[in-house]
Amino acid sequence: MNVQTEKNNKVFISGEIVSEAEFSHEVYGEGFYEMSVLVKRLSGQGDVLPVTVSERLIADRDLRPGVTVNALGQFRSYNKLVDGKSKLMLTVFVRELLDYAPVKNPNTIVLSGYICKPPVYRTTPFNREIADILLAVNRSYNKSDYIPCIAWGRNARFAKNLAVGEKIAIAGRIQSREYQKRITEEDVRTLTAYEVSVSKLAAYENAENFDTDAEFGFVDYSAAAGQAINVYTD
To answer: How big is the chain by its Cα radius of gyration, in Å?
Structure first.
C-alpha cells in the first residue's frame, strides 16, 4: 500500500542522522536497520527520533551521521524484552525516502485509531491542562500499533471525556522526552520516551475535517512522491 493512500497512520520527518545504521532484525530474508534522526522544532529545540529502514531502501543511499534524510512512513510500535520485562518500543517505520523535503513542517503525523485505556487528565502547578492518551491504530495483516499521545489545553479537556473504544483522529508531531527512572536506591537512569504531541484532535465522525495533505502542508505531494528514491510497500 502506498503512503499516498494511507490515512490512519501517516508520518513525515526531515532531519539529520545522528547515529550509525545498526542491524535490527530480519523478516522473510529482508534486513531492517535502525538509526537516530535529529528533527529540529521551530523553537530550535530538537527531537531525536528512532527510525527503522529496510535494506532495500538504503542500498543506494549514503545514510551516515551528518546526512539529512527526508522520510515518509508510519509511527509503529512493537514489544521488546528489556531486563526481563516486555517494553513497548516506538519507531518511525520508513516507507519512502525522498531526495528533497516537500513539507514545510519537518515533523508531522496524522493518526486515527481507538482509545484503548482511559485518558489520564491532570494539571501542572502552573494550571496547564494535559491529557495522556493511548491510541490503538490498525495496520495491515490484523496488526495494531499502540501510540502514546499527549494533548494540551482544550484538546486535553476534550480528551478527558473520551471512553475506551471511541475512535478519534489527531494531528501533531512526534517528540522525544527524557525522564529519570529509579531502578534501585543507588541506580537512577535517564531514559527517553517518545509520544505524539497533539495539535489537533477530533471525534472520528468529524475526521473529514482532516485533509491529510493539508495537515502535512505538502508543497506538491504528487510531485514529491514522484521524486521518491525508493518505496517500501509491505
So the answer is: 18
C-alpha cell at 164: 475506551
Which of these, 127, 110, 117, lies nearest to 213 by C-alpha position?
A: 110
Q: What is the pLDDT of residues 157-171, one digit of tens each?
A: 999 999 999 999 999
- The closest of 127, 6, 17, 110 to 67, measured between CA atoms, is 17
State residue 212 phi and psi, 5-degree precision: -60, -40
- Contact predicate 84/60, CB 8 Å: no
Alpha helices in 26-152 (DSSP H): 55-58
Residue 230, CA distances (Å) to 53, 185, 186 in order:
11, 49, 48
CB 206 within 8 A of CB 171: no
Q: Are 90 and 76 in contact (CB under 8 A)?
A: yes
Q: What is the pTM of this model?
A: 0.86
Locate all alpha helices (DSSP H) within the chain, ordered by sequence: 55-58, 153-159, 212-216, 221-226
Q: Express each pLDDT in 76-93 by its tens digit.
A: 999 887 777 788 899 999
Determine the length of the chain.
234
- Sorted by where each starts, the structural domains of the chain and their CATH numbers stand as 3-231 (2.40.50.140)
**Measured on CA atoms in the order 41, 39, 112, 177, is the torsion positive or negative?**
negative
Look up residue 17 and give its three cell numbers.
542522522
Q: How far is CA 145 from the centre of its chain?
A: 10
pLDDT attached to residue 3: 38
The secondary structure of residue 162, as a DSSP letter, is P
The three cell numbers locating residue 84: 526481563
